[in-house]
């Protein structure tokens, strides 16, 4: 009797999950398979048909594209920079906020503001702020005798400007997730540690960090995947320039598809990017789990 | 639930029928679009056809258009086509030829400038578009400074020639150097001889094309053989880099046209080589501090031509109503009214109209821009070539490549694209 009940429960569960799974299949698996399929054809928007099979030619060509290699490299640096910096800043702010007793909602509201703004708008606002002659950033620096800084017109500056704007925009995502993790930590281990004479740092190192590991892992993973996909900011702020200093890979793939109209080639690049992200995610996941 | 769905569908169909006479048009947010919008009530009153304008930023247009053009029935009845999409759109067969409609209605296309017919009118003898407005580039400069006797004397003393509206490229480069100065004595230049639009890809590629033509260079010869590795092209890159670095404001390597225009409009630059529609904007006190101080002239040797054309896509749901609109908007009366509002005409009769000339005394200068301008290479892969050119120029400007290296790469990639297109 109990077994049949369990079986019926399971069947009911499957039934309830089926529509969701079907929807997922439709919107995730189908596009991925379609992209894989398209990447093996000479499919362009001028001739949008799967009529010329080219096999792995698009993949072979991708490895020969110096621009693609450069874009991957720029993206790697960008992702490392924003994930590491946002994590550092985000964790610090989350720890501070966790200690706040009153007015948490106010801090939340302020911190969440940037996250709620559309990336295109963020890019446009910052472009105005950072105009070297007419923008407010250099004006304020000028008041204290600094600058003027060539924010977006110099390759090295432009890269870091982009990183900083991304941090401004996305760091609250880290804060919110980490803060949720901190708030749910049990109190007992801390009390025990204090009894044993552990200081604030020791508490952080030996209690908070180990307990937070799953949350940190998820936060880093999500942020990493989002960072690889960064496209809007570059599109609005630098168009990949000056030179090739901010040519992120997602923007490069976009250009292959919508400027070059070469959907086949763009699909191949997108598949390669997907593989890279998958490998990175798997590696990070295992690495973080193995840390004790 | 099913009833509800059915009901909505029927409602939807009902609305569809009631709105059959609605024209949907995708346009870019530029002054001429605004002027067309102002005139639309006249069209709606005359024909009973409602017009829905969807106005978006240039950057979004191509991305929005292509999926609509690929599908059998799109959502736009009429579209506007930038000259550098023409090759691509024609090759893909996305536009309806207009010749039969033109012949049937006796629409006169001889009023358009030949250079505009070449650019955004005919492709291989077929009329695919009607030229809408032109954005040929010209040299905008501070005529108040140019006419200042003190400046004239100082210039003559330094260079041994008169300070006048530049007729040669070298003369212009000297003026750029001459007017760059530190007015408040803090050791940094704060008034600039020129402001450049160095953003990738189209701002820098379009602006630099003027430098190429001014130096006597060309993109390709009569048989499409690329000529970007010529000494003229290399010199054009060097001129551009020197202007941007030594005589322009900080950050010009990242400026789009709006940012560059703002520098000029705030009275911080002597000159800005730009699209002719900005000539009108300089005289608008709400966005300019140099009202009545700027003038426009053709770039020595002729600058870059540019234009948009009206077209009816093959995916147009209602091509007949679309043609009714095209006939109306390109009629002499409406074209003139648009010019009177400050638009950029493409018809010779509008340029010759006395009322228009009385209101805008600089229109002969604009006509001269058109007459002397050169066209950008238009072929299937023009957008890709703009990307390549923009990237290489930006690399040269930031010093990551020499001018020669950049031009050699641009030349090789132009050649590859031309071969891919069967032009070579």
Question: How does this structure look, described?
Answer:
- The complex is a heterodimer of chains A (292) and B (424).
- Chain A is mainly alpha-helical and 292 residues long.
- Chain A has 2 domains: 1-31; 40-290, MetI-like (MetI-like fold, Orthogonal Bundle), CATH 1.10.3720.10.
- Chain A is 76% helix and 0% strand.
- Chain A has helices at 2-39, 57-64, 66-99, 104-116, 119-129, 136-143, 155-183, 188-195, 200-228, 232-237, 249-258, 263-290.
- Chain A starts with a helix and ends with a helix.
- In chain A, 29% of the residues are buried.
- With 424 residues, chain B is an alpha+beta fold.
- Chain B is built from 20 helices and 10 strands.
- Chain B has helices at residues 2-18, 31-47, 58-70, 86-92, 99-105, 114-120, 143-146, 149-159, 169-179, 202-214, 231-246, 257-265, 278-282, 319-329, 332-341, 348-351, 354-359, 363-372, 382-397, 403-420; strands spanning 22-28, 50-56, 78-82, 122-123, 126-127, 130-134, 137-142, 271-275, 294-297, 307-311.
- In chain B, the strands form 3 sheets. In chain B, strands 2-1-3-10-6 form a 5-stranded mixed beta sheet, with helices on both faces. A 3-stranded antiparallel beta sheet of chain B has the order 8-7-9. Chain B has a two-stranded antiparallel ribbon with strand order 4-5.
- In chain B, helix 2 links the parallel strand 1 (22-28) and strand 2 (50-56).
- The A-B interface holds A 45-48, 67, 127, 131-134, 148, 150-155, 158, 235, 238-245, 255, 258-261 and B 59, 62-63, 66, 70, 88, 91-92, 198-201, 249-255, 259, 262-263, 266, 268, 380-381, 383-384, 387, 390-391, 394-395, 397-398, 400.
């Amino acid at each position: 009797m109990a077994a049949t009940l369990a079986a019926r429960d399971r069947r009911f569960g499957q039934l309830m999950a089926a529509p969701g799974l079907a929807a997922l299949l439709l919107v995730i698996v189908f596009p991925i398979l379609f992209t894989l399929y398209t990447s093996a054809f000479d499919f362009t928007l001028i001739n949008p048909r799967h009529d010329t099979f080219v096999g792995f030619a698009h993949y072979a060509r991708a490895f020969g594209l110096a621009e693609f290699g450069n874009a991957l490299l720029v993206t790697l640096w960008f992702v490392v920079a924003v994930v590491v910096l946002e994590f550092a800043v985000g964790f610090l702010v989350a720890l501070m906020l966790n200690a706040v007793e009153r007015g948490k909602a106010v801090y939340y509201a302020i911190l969440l503001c940037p996250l709620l703004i559309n990336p295109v708008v963020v890019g446009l606002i910052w472009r105005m702020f950072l105009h070297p002659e007419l923008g407010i950033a250099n004006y304020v620096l000028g008041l204290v005798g600094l600058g003027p800084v060539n924010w977006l017109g110099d390759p090295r500056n432009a890269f870091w400007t982009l990183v900083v704007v991304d941090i401004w925009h996305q760091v609250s995502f880290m804060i919110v997730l980490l803060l949720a993790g901190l708030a749910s930590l049990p109190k007992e281990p801390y009390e025990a540690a204090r009894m044993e004479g552990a200081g604030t740092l020791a508490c952080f190192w030996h209690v908070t960090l180990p307990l937070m590991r799953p949350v940190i892992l998820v936060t880093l993973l999500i942020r990493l995947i989002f960072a690889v996909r960064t496209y809007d900011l570059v599109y609005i702020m630098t168009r990949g320039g000056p030179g090739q200093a901010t040519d992120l890979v997602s923007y490069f793939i976009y250009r292959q598809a919508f400027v070059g109209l070469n959907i086949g080639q763009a699909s191949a690049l997108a598949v390669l990017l997907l593989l890279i992200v998958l490998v990175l995610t798997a590696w990070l996941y295992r690495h973080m789990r193995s840390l004790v | 639930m099913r009833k509800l769905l059915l009901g909505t569908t029927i409602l939807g169909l009902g609305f569809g029928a009631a709105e059959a006479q609605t024209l949907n048009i995708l346009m870019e947010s530029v002054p001429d679009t605004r002027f067309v919008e102002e005139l639309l009530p006249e069209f709606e009153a005359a024909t009973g056809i409602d017009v829905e304008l969807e106005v978006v930023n240039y950057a979004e247009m191509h991305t929005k258009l292509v999926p609509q053009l690929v599908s059998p029935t799109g959502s736009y009845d009429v579209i506007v086509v930038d000259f550098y999409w023409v090759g691509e759109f024609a090759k893909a067969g996305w536009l309806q030829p207009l010749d039969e409609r033109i012949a049937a209605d006796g629409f006169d296309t001889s009023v358009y400038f030949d250079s505009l017919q070449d650019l955004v009118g005919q492709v291989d003898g077929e009329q695919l578009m009607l030229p809408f407005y032109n954005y040929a580039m010209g040299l905008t400069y501070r005529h108040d400074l140019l006419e200042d006797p003190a400046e004239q004397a100082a210039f003559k003393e330094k260079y041994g020639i008169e300070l006048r509206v530049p007729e040669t490229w070298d003369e212009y480069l000297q003026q750029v150097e001459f007017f760059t100065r530190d007015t408040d004595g803090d050791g940094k230049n704060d008034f600039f001889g020129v402001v450049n639009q160095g953003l990738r890809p189209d701002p820098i590629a379009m602006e630099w094309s003027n430098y190429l033509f001014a130096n006597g260079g060309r993109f390709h010869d009569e048989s499409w053989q690329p000529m970007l590795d010529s000494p003229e092209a290399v010199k054009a890159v060097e001129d551009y880099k020197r202007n941007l670095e030594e005589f322009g404001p900080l950050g010009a390597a990242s400026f789009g046209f709006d940012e560059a225009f703002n520098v000029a409009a705030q009275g911080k630059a002597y000159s800005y080589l730009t699209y002719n529609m900005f000539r009108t904007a300089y005289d608008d006190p709400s966005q300019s501090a140099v009202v009545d101080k700027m003038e426009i002239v053709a770039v020595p040797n002729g600058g870059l031509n540019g234009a948009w054309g009206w077209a009816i896509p093959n995916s147009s749901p209602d091509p007949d109503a679309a043609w009714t609109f095209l006939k109306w908007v390109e009629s002499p009366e409406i074209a003139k009214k648009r010019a009177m509002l400050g638009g950029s005409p493409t018809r010779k009769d509008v340029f010759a109209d006395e009322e228009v000339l009385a209101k805008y005394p600089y229109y002969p200068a604009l006509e001269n821009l058109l007459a002397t301008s050169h066209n950008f290479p238009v072929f299937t892969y023009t957008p890709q070539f703009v990307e390549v050119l923009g990237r290489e120029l930006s690399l040269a400007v930031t010093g990551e490549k020499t001018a020669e290296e950049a031009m050699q790469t641009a030349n090789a990639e132009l050649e590859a694209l031309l071969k891919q297109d069967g032009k070579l």
